[in-house]
Amino acid sequence: MSDYYEILGVSKDATKDEIKSAFRKKARELHPDVNKAPDAEEKFKELGKAYDTLSDDNKRATYDRYGEDGLKNAGFDTGGPFAGGFGDLNDIFESFFGGFGGFGFGGRPDPNAPRRGDDLRYDIKLSFEEAVFGVNKTIQFNHLELCKDCNGTGAAKGSSKKTCTKCGGSGQIKTITRTPLGNFAQITTCPVCHGAGEVIDKPCPTCQGQGMLNTEKKVEIKIPAGVDNMSKIRVSGEGDCGVNGGPNGDLFVVVFVEPSKYFKRDGINVFTELEITPAQAVLGDVVMVKTLDGEQEITIPAGIQHENIVKIKGAGIPVISRPSQRGDHIVIIKIVIPTKLSEEEKRLYQELYELNGGRKPQKSIMSKVKGVFK
């Protein structure tokens, strides 16, 4: 059998104020409208029984001496104030908790207050070049728009909404139950108007009384230069329409960029690879490379090493916030060793080898070399 002092979390010599304070705190935690644990309702009822007993001097004295069985034998009601059920957390115990604010929560939201429409998402696929330089695109999507025939009221032409006779326009049904703790107010949403306080006698035939329609729409959007994969573009006011005069939601266009076969992107920089011969690496050269802006001439410095880079300033991706600024184009040098040589090339490589201190190879070695480069 549960101990009422343990249920409230107070000592056996707790004052009435301490018991009341403990009850208020526990009630906030355990009310089933807030606490979704399977045993929350049972614990809440036990909490009510504990408070009902310990807040009454006669019941408390009997409980302290004889326990819960002693209460029953003395003729006290041990069912507790919540044995018959209870209402929503914001609506119970007006006299005890001081109205809706007793639990620290505000009143119910006004169903007729303006509400913003929902935001929408649209995914768009761009080529690598479109993402780099920007593009205008026309997209087509569905969203909710106010019904033009009823102007969003949901009522047919020539008619209007009327005050709900069930709740008198309050949107709520209130019942009062008297208990040992005082008058318990249970407030529920009106089942006729669903909390709106108004009903529609003649629904608009176009929108079936909803006040809005699912409509297909085309919008031209400007995609700025420099967008990347998963970039989001906000188009204000193109989401679902608002309710009760609220503003429309927004449309968010999410970008997916197809990879380039030639360029690799890293932030605002692009990378390409350039294959050169050993002679170009040693002597240097001037070559043409493909950039985002077309063919461009670059200088390969003499003595460049494998996987060194040549940077083309300002030839990369535009910065979205400052399109006049761009990243760089990084050219990664790949020195390719030839696998086939002519006789003249082999002779020249041999002379170079000997000039660098190498020894003249024997005929057997030369035959093997010829076999490699045949």
Q: TL;DR?
A:
With 374 residues, this protein is an alpha+beta fold.
3D architecture notes:
This protein has helices spanning 4-8, 16-30, 40-54, 57-73, 94-97, 128-133, 278-283, 343-355, 363-372, and strands at residues 120-126, 135-146, 161-163, 172-179, 182-189, 198-200, 212-223, 232-235, 251-257, 264-266, 269-276, 285-291, 294-300, 309-312, 318-319, 322-326, 329-335. The radius of gyration is 41 Å and the shape is elongated. The chain folds into four domains: 4-86, Helix Hairpins (Orthogonal Bundle); 117-152 and 205-259, HSP40/DNAj peptide-binding domain (Sandwich), CATH 2.60.260; 275-334, Sandwich (HSP40/DNAj peptide-binding domain); 343-372, no CATH class. By secondary structure, it is α+β, with helices and mostly antiparallel strands. Helix 2 runs antiparallel to helix 3 (40-54). It has nine helices and 17 strands. A four-stranded mixed sheet has the order 10-11-17-14. Strands 1-9-8 form a three-stranded mixed sheet. It starts with a helix and ends with a helix.
Q: Tell me the structural class.
A: alpha+beta
Q: What is the end-to-end distance?
A: 99 Å
Can you count the beta strands?
A: 17
* CATH class category of the largest domain: Mainly Beta
Kindly state the percentage of residues in helix. Answer: 10-25%
Order of helices and strands: HHHHHEHEEEEEEEEEEHEEEEEEHH
What topology, given as strand order, has the largest sheet?
10-11-17-14
Mean pLDDT: 83
